[in-house]
Amino acid sequence: MAAKKKTATKAPAKAGTKKATKKKATAGSLKNVVVFGASRVAVASLEALVEAGFSPSTVLTHRVMDTETWERTEVSPVSRWAKRNDRTAVLPEKTDKSEWLQPLLDDPPDLVLTIGWGLPLPKELLGVPRLGCVGIHTSNLPKYRGANPVRAALAGGEKITGVTVYKIEGSEWDGPILHNEQIDIGPTEIHGELEPRMRELCAQVTVKVAEKYAAGRKFQEKKQEEKRSSTTTRLDRRHRRAPWWLTAQEAYDRLRAYSPEPGLETFIGAKRVEILGGKPMDWMKPTFGDTGTFLGIRSGRMAILCDQSTVFGIDRLRLLGGEPENAADYARRIELSIGSGLV
Fold first, then answer.
1. Mean pLDDT for back-to-back runs of 10 residues, the chain (343 residues)
2. Could you tell me the CATH number of the domain that includes residue 177?
3. Beta-bridge mates of residue 298
4. Staple 281 to which of 108, 187, 308, 313, CB 3.0 to 4.6 Å?
């Protein structure tokens, strides 16, 4: 649910008048916008900026993690967007600074936007743009600074998330907050459902930022509360390990963060297995075993002991490189014994 805002009452404009006036103001006051971004969230915002008349003069991207090979690839969603639209997306990691940074210093942009960027900007660039450097981040800062904030919010069991606009100053994350809009997270909502909603919200917020600066208006700054801050890390395979050492609810929240794909990983014997579906089994109260112990098949699920004597039931799984299958059927097929340990 979006945050409520106070709006002034205005007399209705004649048909077509508001749109024409808006475009005229846009063209004259915010011509040179530079965008740093890599993710699908950034792509949605780039498309919205172009549609609203704020086509970026320069787009920069970085390498992203391929969740199939778990290697960093130079072909980010922003790179693909640029190719589709006959644009160039500069990759600073592979380009000499003199080729991409110096032109920005020689011809200062009106505004620099980082959208889900997750990396520090060069210190030489800070203070150069006429309207400053502004970050747009898909979390309620100061929580979940860094990479993968949408997954982190789900894994953290958050009930609310949002998009935060902040001023980039000396360091990447602790600048004053300029604007924030929030939405609720459903109790069973997964990444594949939340991320599209976050893309849409981020695109709307990005355009609002451009429109406000184009109109010559300023944001009211609010200092971040450092005591509430947290920082996420870049995605790699270890974050997908099934956390049997946590409670069943926490394991479920972690699964939601990696659903529908790539799921969580665990080992059953010597086999690496991907967990694609499951949920807590709150009615079970086991009295034996270590975390990760297989408690048998209960209600058509593989029951796994978690912390605080809670139980997680695996619905669906997949052997690495195989096809999804019912977890209970798999346990029966391999004759998995009660008391076996999953790691």
1. 40 40 51 94 97 95 70 82 92 82 94 90 92 96 93 96 94 91 98 97 98 94 94 80 97 96 94 97 90 96 97 96 96 96 92
2. 3.40.50.170
3. 301
4. 313
Q: What is the pTM (predicted TM-score) of this model?
A: 0.87
Q: Give the DSSP H/E element, type plus range, for residue 316.
A: strand 311-319
Considering the domain architecture, whether residues 250 and 218 belong to the same structural domain is answered as no
Write down how long the chain is: 343
187: buried, middle or exposed (CB in 10 Å: 19+, 13-18, 0-12)?
exposed
User: Among residues 190, 210, 228, which one ends one of the domains?
Assistant: 228
Whether residue 223 is found in the same domain as residue 243: no
Query: Does one domain contain both 90 and 204?
Result: yes
The long-range contacts involving 166-170, CB below 8 angstroms and separated by at least 24 positions, are: 166/134, 166/135, 166/137, 166/141, 166/224, 167/132, 167/133, 167/134, 167/135, 167/221, 168/112, 168/114, 168/121, 168/126, 168/132, 168/133, 168/134, 168/135, 169/126, 170/126
User: Contact at 8 Å (CB) between 195 and 164?
Assistant: no
